[in-house]
Amino acid sequence: IQSFNNGAINKITLVVKGDVHDTAGEVKSAVVEYLEWIKDTIGCVECCIRHVLAVPGTVELSWVQSLPFCAVHVLKEAYAHCKDSTSLYGDLLHHVGSLLAELFKRTHSLQVSLVKLLEKLSITGAQLEDHVHVLCSVCSGLFEICGIVTCLDVKLVIGLWKAIIKLCSQHIRLLRDRFDACPLINSLCEEIRQGYQYLFELSLGADALSLSQGDDKTFSKSCKILAFQMKVLVALLRDFTDYLGNCEKNVLDLLLVLHRYLPPSLCAKALPPKLESEVRVQVVSATAPILGHLVQNRVFRAALTSFAEERIPEDRLPRLLVQLMLLDMLPRCEADVIEFWLSPVNHMNPTPTRGLLSAIFDSVQECEVEMQIPAMLPGVMVAGKPQRQVSLYEFTTTHLCGFIGACPAKHFSVLEHTLLENVLRDNDLSYVIALDCWCFLVRYGTAVTCRDQVQTLILAFKQLKKISHKLADKLSFLIHRLVKFMSPDHQSALVKQFSPSDEPCLWISLGTSCLNDSLSESVRHILISWALSVLQTPAVKALEVLNTSRLFADLLKDRPLSECMSHPQQVLLVNNVCNIWSVVLTSPQMPGPIRELLIVRLLQVTTYLLPDMEAGDILKVLTIVQSSVKTAQTSDVAVAAAGCLLSFGHVRIAPLFQSQVLNRLCQLFNSLLSHPDPLVHHRALEAFVQFASETMYVEAVEACLQGNEALQIRVEHFQNRIPYQSSQKEFVLVDYLISQMSQPAQEEAVATTGVGSTAADVSVEVGDEGITVRSADATTDVAVESCQQSASEHPAKRARLSTSSSDLTVPASQAESSRPETYQKFLETLSTVARDMELEFRQAGPPPPSFVDAVKEALTRISFCMSSHNNWFDSLS
Questions:
Q1: SS3 category, 390
Q2: Which of 190, 415, 659, 668 is buried most deeply by CB count within 10 Å?
C-alpha cells in the first residue's frame, strides 16, 4: 500500500510517455497489467474494510488505526488517476476505457465501504494523540478527494461531504480544537459563490440560449446542490464556531455576495419570479443560522461593523441587510451577547471596535442611492393583511424601532448616545432615521420618559448653541417633535420651567406648533410682544433681528397676519421691517456673509408683509435684493428672493412708483430665471408662472420675457408641464445618483449665525447626570451666547452687553461710536486673504476645497466676536 503511488501509477505514466517500451502493443499490455494491479490493490483494501464491518457493534479506532488512512490514500490516488486519464492516455484511451470504468466503480465501492467504517468507529478507552492524528488525517484526506472528484460526479462530492460532517460531529470533542476546519470552510465559500454565479448566468441565458442550458430542471438541480453545500457550511460553523481560524471574513463576504445577486441590489439582474423566489428562500434560510453560529465571534463582529473606505460599493446594501438581520436576533440572545454587540470591547486590538447600532447608521449613510431610488423590500408581516413592499428607509427604520422596543433598559445609554450622535451627524439620512427612532422611543415609552428626554435635550441644546448654531438647529427640530408626545400637564410644566419671557430664543428655535392649542397661543403672544419690543430698540442687534425674523416667518407660515397679532402690532411690525431694510440699503460696508444671511431672513418675513408695505419700501427691497443676487457668494439669497416673489401677484403698487417697481421686478425675474443654479431657476419659474397668473400688471410679464425666445419657450413648457428635453444621453436616475456620490462631498456654506463647528468638532457625553456637549477646541460662540442673555436680562445690563453683538442702528436714533483703525485693518486683512484664497481655487477649475468655506466661517465668527462698537458695520469692508 505504501508503494501504491510510486508503483503502478508511476509506472503507467512512464509507460505511456514511452520511457520504458517503444511499441504500441507493449505499451497497451503494460498499462493493462498495471491497471489490473491497481484494481487488485483497491479490492484488497475494500476486503479488509468489509471484514471489519462484519464485526457486530462499534469498531474501536485503535484496532484499525492505519486502515482508514490507507483507504483514503488509495481513494485519492485512484480518483486522481481517473480524472487525469484523458490527458494521460491520449490515443490509447479507447483501448483501456473499459478498464478505467471498472477501476472507477471499484474506487467508488471502496469509498462506500470506508464511509460505513467511519460511521462505526468509536473511542472507548483513553483518548490518545494518535487517535486525534488519525481522525484529522482522514478528514483532511476526504476534503482533498472532494477537490479531485468535483469534476467527475456530483454524487461523489455529496457523499464525501456527508462523511466529513458525520465524522466531525461524531468526534467533535476530539477535533474541535485540533482539526483545522478553515480550509474546508474557505473552499465551501468559494464553491458556493461560484455556484450561485453560474446559477444566475444560467437563469439569465434561459431565453437567449437553448433550453438544455437554462431549463427549470437544471436550475433546480443546481439549487439543490448549493443548498446542500450551504448546509455543510452551517454544520462546520456550528461544530467549530470557536476555532474558525481566519475564515470569518470569507463567510461574511459570501453572505454579501449572495445578497448582492438578489434584488433590490443595484447590480442584481432580473430573474424569473419563480427562480428568484427559490434562490431568495435558500439565501435567507441559510443566512440566519450562519449569523446564529457567529453571533459571539469577535473576528466576525469586527468584519461586520468595521468601516473601511475601500469597501466595494456593491456590498453596501447587502452589508446593511445582514446587519439588520443580526440586529433582529439580538433580543432573543443572552444579555452578554447583546452587550457584546452594542458595547464591544476588544483589548487585543488597538483600533476601537464600533457597536452594531453605530455600524448600521454608517451603512445607512453609504446606501444613499438605494434610499433615494428607493429600493423596495418585503415589509413586516401583519396578521390578517397581505405583506407589502416597503422602501429601504421604512425597512431600516422599522427594524431599528423593533429593536428599540425590545432593548433592555441597561443598554439605553448606548442607544441614546448613538441616536444623539446621528442627530448631530452631517448626513441627512442618518439624521432623519435617528429622529424617527427617537420619536418611537418616547411615543411608546412612559410619559415620564418623554418628559425626562425633552428636559435633558433642552439642556444639551442650550450648551450646543454656544458651540455650533447649525448643530443646535438640528437638535431643536428633534425636541420640537418630541414635545408633541408630551402630556398636556408636562407641556405646561415645561413652559413654566423654560419660560418664554426668560428664554425667548429657545422657544423661537423650538417653535410653538409643538404645544397644545391653548398653550401655544399664550407662548406665541409672549414671543410676539418680546420680538416687537426688540425691534423697537434704538440700536437693535443683528442677531436679534435674525431671531425675530425667524419667529415671524415661522408664525406667518401657518396663519394669516391678522390672526397672529392685533392691528397696531401689525403696523408696528411692518414699520420696523421697513426701517431695517432702509438700514441695510444704507450700509453697503456690511460683511458679506452677515449681509446675505440678514437679507435671507428679512425676505422670509417680507413675503407675508408685501400687501401691507408701501410702494417706496417695496422698491427698496427689490433694489437690495437685485444687487445682492449678483454679488452673493451662495445661492441662498436667490432662493429666498424667488420664494418672496411667489407672493407678488396680489401686490398693488401706487402709480407714483409703479414704473420703477415693475422695472426692478423685471430685472430681478430676469436675474433669477437666468441663474446657473438649477434650484434657483426652478423656484424662479414657479414664482414667475404664479405671478403671471395672478398679477394685474400684464405689461410686466411681457417685459420679463421680451427679447428672450429661449426663456419664453421654457416658461411655456413649465406652465404646460412639459418635461425638459436634454440634448445629452438618456437620463438614468441610478447612474446620476452614483455619479453624485462619487464626487467629493462639499460642506455647506454659512447658513446660520455662529456656524463654526461641525459634528466632528463636538463631543457628546451621555451620563447619569445628563448630556454634556463640548467643543473640540473649547471655544464658544460669544455672539449667540450674548443673544440668549440679552433677551431676558435687565435693560441696563443688556446695554452693557451690547459690545458682544452687532448693532443695526435704525433711523429713529443714531448712536455715535468710534471706529478703531486696528480692528478695521485686521478685519480688512482677513477678508482680503479669504477672498484671494477663494479666487485662486476657483480659477483652478474644480470647486474650492472645504477648508476655504471654513476660512469664511471663521471670518464671520471673528467679525461677530470683535464687534465691540455700535456702528461696527460701517467700519468693515
A1: strand
A2: 668
Beta bridge partners of 59: 121
Residues 102-111: what's their mean pLDDT? 89
Cβ-contact 695, 649 below 8 angstroms: yes
Residue 182 banded pLDDT, cuts 50, 70, 90: very high
How far is Cα 343 from Cα 354, in angstroms, rounded to an integer?
8
Angle between helices 356-366 and 298-305 (to 10 degrees): 30
Question: Is residue 874 within 8 Å of residue 827, measured between CB atoms?
Answer: no
Residues near 67 by beta carbon (within 8 Å), at least 6 away in sequence: 45, 48, 49, 52, 117
pLDDT at 318 over 90: yes
Beta-carbon-side half-sphere exposure of residue 835 (alpha carbons within 13 Å): 12
Nearest Cα to 578, choosing from 629, 624, 524, 641?
624
Backbone dihedral angles phi then psi of residue 266, each to the nearest 5 degrees: -65, -25
Give me the residues paired with residue 765 across strands: 772
The angle subtended at Cα 407 by Cα 323 and Cα 759, nearest 5°, is 65
Print burial letters for 526-556: b (CB count within 10 Å at least 16), e (below 16). Answer: bbbebbbebbebebbbbbbbbbbbbbbbbbb
Query: Which amino acid would we find at residue 808?
Result: L
d(CA 150, CA 165): 17
Please report which helix (H) or strand (E) contains residue 377, including its range.
strand 376-378
Q: Which of 225, 253, 233, 268 is nearest to 311 (CA)?
A: 253
| 770: enclosing H helix or E strand | strand 770-775
762-791 in b/e form (b: 16+ CB < 10 A) is bebebeeeebebebeeeebbbbbbbbbebb
Query: pLDDT per residue over 541-585, tens digit each?
Result: 888 888 899 999 998 888 888 888 899 999 999 999 999 898 888
- Spatial distance between the Cα atoms of 209 and 214, rounded to a whole number of angstroms: 7
Q: Report the run of H or E that residue 3 belongs to, with start and end.
A: none
For residue 56, say if its preceding peptide bond is cis, omega within 30 degrees of 0: no
C-alpha cell at 391: 422602501
Give the separation between CA 632 and CA 625, rounded to whole angstroms: 10
Helix (H) or strand (E) holding 870: none
Residues 496, 511: contact at Cβ < 8 Å?
Answer: no
Rg of the chain on CA atoms, in Å: 39
- The whole-number pLDDT of residue 35 equals 80
Tens of pLDDT, residues 402-446 = 999 999 888 989 999 999 999 998 889 999 999 999 999 999 888
Mean pLDDT of 214-241: 85
Q: Model's pTM, two decimal places?
A: 0.80
Higher pLDDT, 771 or 829: 829
For residues 555, 559, 563 and 568, what is the CA-based torsion angle, rounded to 10 degrees? Answer: 50
Does residue 775 have a pLDDT over 70?
A: no
The amino acid sitting at 549 is: S
CA distance 138 to 107: 16
Contact 301, 322 (CB under 8 A): no
